[in-house]
Amino acid sequence: MPKSIEIEIQVNIEKSDSLLVFLNDNAEFKLETHQIDEYFTPAHRDFITVRPVAEWLRLRDSNGSYFFTYKNWHYEGEKSFYCDEYETKITDLDQLKKTFKALNFRSLITVDKTRKIWLYKDFEIAMDSVKGLGEFVEIEYKGEDQDVNPKEVTERMIQFLKGVDCGKIMINYMGYPYLLLFPKEAKYKEV
What we know:
The protein has helices at residues 16-26, 93-102, 150-163, 176-181, and strands at 5-6, 8-13, 28-42, 55-62, 65-76, 79-90, 105-120, 123-130, 134-141, 169-172, 188-190. The chain has a single domain, classed as Hypothetical Protein Pfu-838710-001. The protein has an 11-stranded antiparallel β-sheet with strand order 1-6-5-4-3-7-8-9-2-10-11. It is globular and about 50 Å long. A hairpin with a 2-residue loop joins strand 5 and strand 6. It starts with a strand and ends with a strand. With 191 residues, it is an alpha+beta fold. The longest helix is centred in the last third of the chain and has 14 residues, at 150-163.
């Protein structure tokens, strides 16, 4: 996929120990990181007035490395299989926050998580512990194939989890900021 397209799933699984054993035996451990993600919206186009929320503007502090990210999710009903993602590393998080304030962007929510990341074949697999939400698994496609079908890749991710015997798998199409902002609207679907 082009670098501006991201295909990923975010799930709760019943048996995280099964996945952890598999990853430790078969995947390449990359890192553990503490990420603080602050989400913003411009005043002239409030992202959270639309359901499902499709756009997210994020500033990330990942162990002292800073990133600016904009995502625009493509939904089919309440399901999304990929998004346009534009991300760049930044050097001064505080200056960008001051710029946002000057441009009348407001902070929506902060997501605080610890993430452990492995690489397995075409997948980056993250085990996330999210403050206020709990434990999740996020799988992102990292393959080189430019012509993949997002739905097919998503299905491969789900089949991978089933093959590792993760038990019940509940997919979340909304993302961590949405779950924290609107817990009563949280929707999970068993796959």
